[in-house]
Amino acid sequence: MTTTKLRHRFGRRAATVALAAVGTIAATAGSAVAADVYVDYDFNGTTTIASTGSNVTLGPAVMYTTVADDGTFVGDMTLPGTRTEFKLAGFIPVTANVDFIPTKPTTGQMIRVGRFRTLTSSSSYYVRLSNIKVVGFPLFAGSQCRTKDPVLMDANTPEGEYFTIADGGRLTGTYSIGDFQNCGLNTWLINILIPGGGNTVDLHLTGGRPGTP
């Protein structure tokens, strides 16, 4: 298929990614093993902590991904730290820095649905809190205040939407946060406020472009 036909069928950005994939496959012609496709995505999102009603920004960041011939999806991404705030007992202002520390790459599967695709994904993070303040006064919790166990965050293409290698797509899901540790004398308070289920995540992968192995 010519470059002109690719651009007409998929659009300029999609054609760029598609041509890169064709070039990779051509370079390994004659091999019985299909080549992986490397794609980088811009990443933005939010997560809402149900127990406090607070919104936490995820990104902006870049996710570096590898898509195998069978649709297996692996992504590496470092999220920048962010800050959140909420009201304790409905009126006492609390602020805190939040870091999501990955414990392993994001993994997933692209699933073909007719002429389209969807994506399932699973990520694993420690959630770390620091610089916690209540009514502007520091709540000393130390620098290693984080969840005891990794938080498993599954996010999938919403029903009725699709994911493309070139343009990415939206991923949503719910997850639970377990107990925290190493938060000093305030560990008990944090474990009353933060842990629980029903937390939501809404992620956007956009601007797919050829990556490097």
Provide structural commentary:
This protein is mainly beta and 213 residues long. It has 3 helices and 12 strands, in the order ααβββββββββββαβ. Strands 1, 2, 3, 4, 5, 6, 7, 9, 10 and 12 form a 10-stranded antiparallel β-sheet that branches. A two-stranded antiparallel sheet has the order 8-11. α1 crosses α2. The chain is elongated, with a radius of gyration of 20 Å. The two termini are 25 Å apart.
Key attributes of the depicted protein:
single chain, two-stranded antiparallel ribbon, 3 helices, 54% strand, elongated
Radius of gyration: 20 Å
| SSE succession | HHEEEEEEEEEEEHE
Regions with little confidence, pLDDT below 50 for 5+ residues: 1-32
Helix/strand/pairing category: mainly beta
Average of the residue pLDDT scores: 85
Q: Tally the beta strands.
A: 12
Q: In percent terms, what proportion of residues is strand?
A: over 45%
Major beta-sheet overview? 10 strands, antiparallel
End-to-end separation: 25 Å
Helical fraction: 10-25%
Shape: elongated
Number of helices: 3
What's this model, at a glance?
With 213 residues, the chain is mainly beta. It has helices at residues 3-10, 12-27, 187-193; strands at 37-49, 54-67, 72-76, 82-88, 92-113, 116-134, 137-138, 146-147, 151-156, 169-177, 180-181, 196-210.
Topology:
Blueprint (H helix, E strand, L loop, with lengths): L2 H8 L1 H16 L9 E13 L4 E14 L4 E5 L5 E7 L3 E22 L2 E19 L2 E2 L7 E2 L3 E6 L12 E9 L2 E2 L5 H7 L2 E15 L3
Helix pairs in contact: 1-2
